[in-house]
């Protein structure tokens, strides 16, 4: 056993170094897109905190999900967060698996470029939506009588820019339609559905996404409409991105002159089939001349 470990360790470090070199070159090419994606995450957080200043607590609205699903209680709010952290952490680890895995179907930088495009488009719609109409928050800290339900106007710009971190992020109110947790979950699940290779993980990911949505409603963190709108909006956004934006070549075909986003395996096969069909036609044209 020690001998096997000694033999494999240098291979692992060479694999990590080789992948890090490749990813560094991609990052040097796509750093503007990555930086823009990270910056927009801050802008989204800033907007979510800003709408809290407009929030006015009131009676909880009538909701079909609240009638069907019993409330978990304020002390069990961690349940839905645990599922979300599991999905989030698993996806992040998967995007970095090319550094240690023999099977390299994706590039980490390219996957995150696509993810940032998905998130930015979905979160832009979310910002427009929750600023358009502020609903009384159903979460326990957003209800009437809670000290956190309303926050006083900011004293200076720095207070807004820092978002009262971390409390302003954890105990936000007013950013309801539509659910941010569901945006992240669906983006991650749809991305793995497109580029992942394990079918059982794909089935499990969709199951966890459905369970998390139910737990969010049962935890009274969102109204049912927030979840429903997120499910169809995010899927439509991803459909639009996949059909309108250019793709990247697969890493197996080389990474020179890469377009904006990565190709799925199905798209690569379709493109190869088109190339084979085009070749005889081009040859026949040459013969005629």
Automatic annotation (TrEMBL):
Membrane topology, from the record: Multi-pass membrane protein
Keyword Zinc-finger on entry: no
Signal sequence extent: none
Biased amino acid composition, Basic and acidic residues: 266-279
Top-level division of the source organism's lineage: Eukaryota
Keywords, ordered alphabetically: Lipid metabolism, Membrane, Sphingolipid metabolism, Transferase, Transmembrane, Transmembrane helix
Any one biological process term the GO annotation gives: ceramide biosynthetic process
Subcellular location, record wording: Membrane
Biased composition regions of type Polar residues, renumbered to the chain: 280-289
GO cellular component: endoplasmic reticulum membrane; Golgi membrane; plasma membrane; trans-Golgi network
Keyword ATP-binding belongs to the record: no
Principal place of residence: membrane
Region Disordered, annotated ranges: 253-289
Transmembrane annotation, as ranges: 77-97, 109-131, 168-188, 200-217, 223-241
Gene Ontology molecular functions: ceramide cholinephosphotransferase activity; inositol phosphoceramide synthase activity; sphingomyelin synthase activity
Domain Sphingomyelin synthase-like: 172-240
Pfam families: PAP2_C
Assigned protein family: Belongs to the sphingomyelin synthase family.
UniProt xrefs under PANTHER family: PHOSPHATIDYLINOSITOL:CERAMIDE INOSITOLPHOSPHOTRANSFERASE 1-RELATED, SPHINGOMYELIN SYNTHETASE
Protein known as: Sphingomyelin synthase-like domain-containing protein
Organism: Arabis nemorensis
């Amino acid at each position: 056993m020690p001998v096997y470990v000694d033999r494999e360790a240098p291979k692992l470090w060479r694999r990590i170094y080789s992948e890090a070199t490749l990813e560094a070159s991609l990052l040097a090419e796509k750093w503007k897109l990555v930086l823009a994606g990270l910056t927009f995450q801050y802008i989204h957080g800033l907007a979510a905190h800003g709408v809290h200043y407009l929030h006015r607590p009131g009676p909880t609205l009538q909701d079909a999900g609240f009638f069907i699903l019993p409330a978990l209680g304020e002390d069990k709010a961690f349940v839905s967060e645990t599922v979300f952290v599991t999905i989030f952490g698993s996806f992040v680890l998967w995007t970095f698996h090319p550094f240690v895995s023999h099977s390299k179907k994706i590039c980490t930088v390219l996957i995150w470029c696509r993810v940032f495009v998905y998130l930015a488009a979905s979160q832009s719609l979310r910002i427009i939506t929750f600023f358009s109409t502020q609903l009384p928050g159903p979460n326990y800290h957003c209800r009437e009588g809670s000290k956190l339900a309303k926050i006083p106007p900011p004293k200076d710009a720095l207070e807004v820019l820092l978002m009262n971190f971390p409390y302003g992020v954890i105990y936000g109110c007013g950013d309801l339609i539509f659910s941010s947790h569901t945006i992240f979950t669906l983006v991650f699940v749809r991305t793995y559905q497109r580029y992942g290779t394990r079918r059982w993980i794909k089935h499990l990911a969709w199951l966890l996404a459905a369970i998390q949505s139910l737990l969010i409603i049962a935890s009274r963190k969102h109204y049912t409409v927030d979840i429903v709108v997120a499910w169809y909006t995010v899927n439509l956004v991803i459909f639009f991105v996949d059909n309108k934006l250019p793709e990247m070549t697969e890493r197996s075909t080389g990474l020179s002159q890469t377009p904006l986003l990565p190709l799925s395996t199905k798209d690569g096969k379709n493109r190869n089939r088109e190339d084979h069909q085009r070749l005889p036609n081009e040859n026949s044209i040459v013969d005629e001349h």
